């Protein structure tokens, strides 16, 4: 199994994990405010020191590829590309919402009655980035940006329970009132939940083109008054 460096910078969480053979060797992360430019390279140095490993031993770098913060994604991807170019190692892309579902599987109790799982990231106002999975992790609906209204996801809610989680889900609680809607708090992105997915891709040699890889922004970047 490879020595992997995983980077999560798609949200306010700046998170770095070093792993080998599925075992977490080092983790450094900070949430709250966007601080990726100041902290990412320092966190990378810290996890190598913690694990007493050298960066030249790396087999691959995994990056949370989005959707998410435009600036955060740019910082994470440029850092990951720089390491891959310098070391001559593969780049692995992991979907942010896919990793968030991995976090849910690790942290939350899986209700046998639930067949649909919806990780959500905040896309500002009443819009979210979301993706739907079944209980085995298969994708039901691809990543999309949705404006949340009272009957959002009604086609799934009428059939059974749907679990919503992630920072985007919290602002939907007051809008989606269907009795089959279940909301789970405290599921946040972290590089440690990318490890299993990154190792699977490494074993199958599912790598990104380092020269041409771009983050999955989903929406165009706009500037304007807050």
Give the topology, please:
Layout: E1 3-8, E2 14-20, E3 23-30, H1 36-51, E4 60-64, H2 70-87, E5 91-94, H3 96-107, E6 116-122, E7 127-133, E8 139-147, H4 154-157, E9 162-165, H5 167-170, E10 181-184, H6 195-204
Parallel strand pairs: 1-4, 4-5, 6-9, 9-10
Antiparallel strand pairs: 1-2, 2-3, 6-7, 7-8
Helix pairs in contact: 1-2
Structure description:
There is one protein chain. By secondary structure, this protein is an alpha/beta fold. The protein has 2 domains: 3-95 and 189-204, Nucleotidyltransferase, domain 5 (2-Layer Sandwich); 109-184, Nucleotidyltransferase, domain 5. The protein has helices spanning 36-51, 70-87, 96-107, 154-157, 167-170, 195-204; strands at residues 3-8, 14-20, 23-30, 60-64, 91-94, 116-122, 127-133, 139-147, 162-165, 181-184. It has a 5-stranded mixed beta sheet, sandwiched between helices. Strands 8-7-6-9-10 form a 5-stranded mixed beta sheet. Helix 1 crosses helix 2. The longest helix has 18 residues, at 70-87. The radius of gyration is 18 Å and the shape is elongated.
């Amino acid at each position: 199994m490879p020595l992997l460096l995983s980077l999560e910078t798609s949200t306010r969480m700046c998170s770095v994990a070093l792993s080998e053979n599925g075992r977490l060797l080092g983790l450094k992360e900070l949430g709250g405010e966007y601080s990726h430019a100041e902290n990412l390279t320092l966190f990378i140095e810290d996890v190598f020191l913690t694990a007493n490993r050298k960066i030249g031993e790396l087999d691959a770098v995994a990056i949370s590829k989005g959707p998410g913060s435009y600036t955060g994604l740019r910082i994470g991807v440029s850092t990951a590309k720089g390491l891959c170019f310098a070391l001559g190692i593969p780049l692995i892309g992991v979907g942010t919402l896919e990793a968030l579902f991995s976090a849910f599987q690790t942290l939350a109790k899986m209700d046998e009655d639930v067949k649909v799982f919806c990780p959500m990231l905040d896309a500002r106002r009443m819009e979210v980035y979301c993706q739907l999975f079944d209980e085995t992790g298969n994708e039901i609906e691809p990543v999309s940006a949705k404006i949340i209204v009272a009957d959002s996801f009604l086609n799934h809610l009428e059939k059974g329970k749907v679990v919503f989680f992630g920072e985007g889900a919290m602002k939907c609680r007051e809008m989606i009132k269907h009795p089959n809607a279940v909301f789970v708090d405290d599921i946040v992105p972290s590089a440690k939940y990318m490890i299993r997915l990154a190792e699977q891709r490494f074993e199958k040699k599912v790598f990104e083109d380092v020269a041409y890889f771009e983050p999955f922004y989903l929406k165009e970047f706009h500037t304007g008054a807050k």
